[in-house]
Amino acid sequence: MMATLMQATAPAVDPFDVSRAELYRDDTWHAPFAQLRAEAPVYRCEHSDYGPYWSVSTYKPIVEVESLPEIYSSEVGGITLADFIPESDVRMPMFIARDRPVHTGQRRTVAPAFTPSEMVRMSDDIRRRTAEILDSLPWNTRFDWVDTVSIELTTQMLAILFDFPWEDRRKLTFWSDWAGDIELVKNEELRKQRLGYMYECGAYFQNLWNAKVGQPQTPDLISMMIHSDAMSHMDHFEFIGNLILLIVGGNDTTRNSMTALAYGLDRFPDERAKLEADPSLIPNTTQEIIRWQTPLAHMRRTATRDTELMGQTIREGDKLALWYISANRDESVFGPDADKIVVDRPNARRHLAFGHGIHRCVGARLAELQIGILMEEMAKRRMRVNVVGEPTRVAACFVHGYRQLPVEISRY
Q: From CA 37, how far away is CA 59, in angstroms rounded?
């Protein structure tokens, strides 16, 4: 009898609670988002594992929220639906989760690592490393694209950006996976484990920092921080926070777009044929892959005062999830074929995968460069990636990505 009563009073699962991990694990998120876009682009979800939140699922209101950082704060509650910071937790501030003016100064510090001239300087090295990895791949033999190509390429890039010891570079992948997994917030044991790994990451980087203090500036991110007014006096926790931001931002996003490139083009062979016939489509295809994948499904904002968004009353303190993953499939912007990869889509560049406004991804150019070079080097080798089994996906509503993708490569 008791069990029956319990079931009767427990809130039913809201079919429009798009924060549920299984939607992403099973790749079944398309239908609820399509319905939200059509019927309730700004929707109040009362019951979720992350508490009540507003789902913002179409292009226009997301741009509106992103354009008003004074009303919709990144700092008040952080940037994910998960509240990683109850009173007992350690706060690790990062500039993506800061408001102005702190955000402006800290972002300005790392931005020089991603200027067009830096991209030119790095491109030869990126091309050389990409070529080495592609030349080491086995033809007509099954292997995991995620581990062999996507993770290896992005982890090498991160190691170079941080001037990180080469032989330890896979630590960056490990820390990134733990840092970006917001599902851990639901389990006290895993939450503590995550915190332990974040401290381990911080201690490792503190040693790298200490070795560079008092040395001439070099073109890596740690040296840039040391030599800047905005970041040279960060306390230990803010240092860890910003490192984690740069690691997850530089690792998860590019790596999952590189996997989407293999998986997505295999799913749309007509589009792949178009690209194989005309490599000049590579820059546009890069944008289209990033749009189609959307490697971070959402960012969160918190209302700093009562306001209105598309006719809905938002109260001070309300949590909003900006679903980039849905806005990038918004039919009113990308047309009725928004769920497809279209390599020559005329407005692929309008995607919101990098965000919008003051928090737009600082490393966007580097991500585009790495993905574009990967496609160029594949085209030189006439390399086609054939997917030979279903991918294993990340079960979470923040990092939208792949754990494994079994493939074989062949020539076209």
A: 9
